[in-house]
Amino acid sequence: MTERTFVMVKPDGVRRGLVGEVIKRIEQKGLKIVAMKMVRLSEETAKEHYAEHVNKPFFPSLVEFITSGPVVSMVVEGNSAIEVMRRLCGATNPIESPPGTIRGDFGLDIGENIVHASDSPHSAEKEISIHFSNEEIIDY
Ligand code: IDP
Ligand code: MG
Is the CB of 113 under 6 A from ligand 1? Predict the structure, then answer.
């Protein structure tokens, strides 16, 4: 089933020059990027994006980190795009994420794991609407 999901190269990924690497893996998998922009998230947007984690001990550092530099936000479309993007990213903790995944190949720190991808259809819809207006998503 064709789905859309929200993907973001986090500030560590941008700082380390991994934007192209992430885009390459999305494209070579056969998924389609239908919206993309570089932005610096406001604290408000960051808190909305990570609202499910508001009561976790790492929430303040998570918000600080995700607003610490520019991110590259995307809407990615394709067959089972939500699950496929999660598989491309790998496990949340890069130490447990196997080689071949983005986090497994490039990360070592759970707080700086390079990339975000929505974890369900409900999250995808919510996150796309937080980060993009309908006009920014291109049908092609
Ligand atoms: P996900 O990004 O794989 O969906 P979530 O559990 O939704 O993982 O957590 C959101 C982000 O919060 C993670 O990508 C990671 O950067 C950070 N995070 C999750 N758990 C921890 C933790 O135990 N310590 C520090 N940061 C964490
Ligand atoms: Mg998550």
Answer: yes
Question: Does residue 131 have an active-site annotation?
Answer: no
Cα dist. 112→62, 80, 92 in Å? 9, 26, 10
pLDDT tens across 23-52, in order? 999 999 999 999 999 999 999 999 999 999
Choice among 49, 116, 122, 131 that is catalytic:
116
> Is 61 part of a structural domain of the chain?
no
What are the φ/ψ torsions at residue 23 (nearest 5 degrees)? -60, -40
Residue 106 inside a domain? The answer is yes
Q: Which ligand is nearest to the CA of 113?
A: 1
Which two three-digit tokens encode residue 82? 């939500």
C-beta separation of 71 from 65 below 8 A: no
10 Å Cβ neighbour count for 37?
A: 13
CB atoms within 10 A of CB 129: 11
Tell whether 49 is covered by a domain: no
